[in-house]
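quick one before i forget lol
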Amino acid sequence: MTSFQSYLKLILRSAILLSIAFLASCSINNSNTLLFDNRINSSDNTVRDEYNPAHSSLDNRVKAECKSIKKNRRGLNYSGSYLSAHDFSNQDLQGADFRDADLRGADFQCSDVSGANFDGADLSGASFENAKTDGASLQKAALSGSNL
């Protein structure tokens, strides 16, 4: 085996190991969308995407009933985040920043998004059923197929 062939074999093995490591940290739902959760960075109040196997697409999940207790996510910065098909149902998102975020198919059912900024966000197919939207900004947001 030549040194070039050994080098190619090493690169191929490394690529396979990296692919396996990536696939081990991600999941794909029935619509071939990677499923991620987010974690809050306490130093700058921004949100970072991380894999969460408990999430599934809107098609595969039973709609949550409106509850009186909501997760407090007031004023968080989700701007520019990839949160397609994310479950934001039953959360207090007052004043949250979703500018330029990918929120296609996201579920905001029973959430309070009063004063939230969705400017430039892609909300195609998103559900806002029974959500409070007073004062939310939607300038230049894509709303095709959304349930407002």
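fyi Strands lie at 36-41, 46-51, 71-72, 91-92.
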